[in-house]
Amino acid sequence: MSTKTPRAHSASSFPNNQQSLSASESVRELLDSLSIEQRCNQELLASLGFALRSFTNLNRFLELVPVVASRLVGIKGALLVPFQTDGRIWRDQIQVLPLDQNQELLRQIASLEAGLNIGFGTDPGQLVALDSLVQRHMAKSIIYSTSVVARGKQRGRLYVFDLQDSVSLSEVHCRHLQLVADLAGVAIENDQILQEIRRHERVDRQLSTGAEIQAQLLPDRCPVIEGVELAARCRPAFQVGGDYYDFIFTRPELVGKNREKGRWALVIGDVMGKGVPAGLLMTMLRGMLRAEVLSGLPPDRILHDLNQLALVDLEHSHRFVTLFYSDFDPRTRRLRYANAAHNPPLLWRAEQRSVSRLDAPGLLIGLQFDANYGCGSIILQPGDVLLYYTDGVTEAPGIAGDRFDEVRLIKTLEDSCRSGLDAQAILNKLFSRLDRFVGVDHQLEDDASMVLLKVNDELMLPTI
To answer: Can you give the residue ranges of every domain in the chain?
Structure first.
């Protein structure tokens, strides 16, 4: 009996032990399976993160997005529809899996007329229409979709689907897919930032080249003219500016000392606008003016002819030019001048110890075809100082928000002239005062140029 009872007990309890053992193995197998799936998902996401760090080709990265998305949730189909910076569908970067079964879907999305419009990706109504288009293609299949977003901007849509079966996704699957969409958004954003940087680099190189050319066109030094000192400087607001000044010898056949005693044209001008367009127009104007100076005509006739020559090109560019033209004869110290609506130069008379404006009537260059210009003439005396400048000087904004204006310029010029400084020292003091007013760390809003002529203090006329 004693031996049977245990046998009977053992026989009756064996099925329960077997069931407990089977349940434990099933739990272990389930846990092992989940662990393997988790490690697999981690590896997939890690590979996508590595690709994001390593790939320089956006297309190669975006090709991985549907592959990783479909494997993360165990679904055969995935679609990525990225948007360009302006919101249009980025047709060249649409990615789909499997490709052979979704050619018609690709064609429909690529030919979607609304997708060619700027702002498509930021219009909620259009996104709903895009989702509906994808849903119609999938017939009765349930589709999961999410937005590809970077820095708060819509960068695309990500879909997963199965053409054969309905899709059922867990909360973990949804989080994984959103993570994939976020990585795709970062990749698109990074690529667009990189393209923008490259574009700026190209523009910077072009501006640097333009600035070099412009610097070569502006005089690199002032000429030697008997009886006077000259100083000049241009400070562009951008790398390429629209300010222009020049010293042009009216009789290029003369050389040596004869050039110092000959008549010279002194010119300053300003093309309305900044940057490359203004710089190009300034270059064109310089060539025209230099050809006109050789005609030997008086200043008013030179501005008249220059206006007619430049009018067509200026009309097409919707820009105008202010220009003050003068010529100086060192043998007589006579300065003739004409003005095309430029800031009148400031004249310091040493004898009167006061500043006045040197002006003549005239319209902008490029405003009216048959414009006429007045012509003035003065004799400069020993110690006199003549300052040519552009409006970038007087219109320069200060730290407090006011402008440098003509009053400050006149005051600084008067103080400098009374101190008996030479031409270069006066010019340096003027720019130093302007810099203090604007602020050391502030950029000028417009080009600022100044040309200064000072008659030597000798009482005798230059030798003939």
So the answer is: 28-194, 218-455
